[in-house]
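User: Can you recover a sequence for this backbone? Please restate the input before giving your answer.

Assistant: Of course. Working from this structure:
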């Protein structure tokens, strides 16, 4: 008799969990070392950053890193900085499940929007956000190296 795999979503709140999540985050943020990751995460958490994980059978398969933000054009909103699914588990809908959870969580907590940025070249990701999840492509993001 087959049983369906156990899936849970939870916020990662301690160093042990963050270390467990690092190999998956590194698939998105390839230049990070574990040391830099933990240092930045400490600082980002002071600024309101939260890291959520989708577990399948007690193993992390997908991560979403986000913060609450307030500004004049998005009001009170959640900004998703990081979204990644382990390459061994892609195309099974885990990223979509995790983002849908974030959408509901954000709405319940008073967000007007969920916003994110995606690299210009990542057309596959853009189709995912626009077609599957009904995001609007509504602005360009710029940065200047100092």
């Amino acid at each position: 008799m087959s049983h369906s795999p156990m899936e849970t979503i939870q916020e990662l709140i301690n160093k042990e969990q963050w270390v467990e999540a690092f190999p998956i985050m590194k698939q998105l943020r390839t230049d990070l070392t574990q040391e830099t990751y933990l240092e930045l995460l400490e600082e980002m958490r002071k600024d309101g950053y939260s890291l959520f994980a989708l577990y399948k059978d007690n193993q992390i398969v997908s991560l979403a890193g986000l913060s609450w933000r307030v500004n004049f054009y998005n009001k009170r909103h959640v900004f998703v900085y990081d979204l990644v699914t382990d390459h061994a588990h892609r195309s099974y809908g885990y990223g979509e499940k995790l983002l849908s959870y974030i959408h509901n969580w954000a709405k319940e907590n008073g967000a007007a929007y969920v916003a994110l940025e995606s690299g210009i070249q990542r057309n596959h990701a853009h189709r995912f956000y626009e077609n599957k999840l009904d995001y609007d492509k509504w602005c360009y993001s710029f940065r200047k190296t100092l």
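That completes the design. The chain is about 35% helix and 30% strand.
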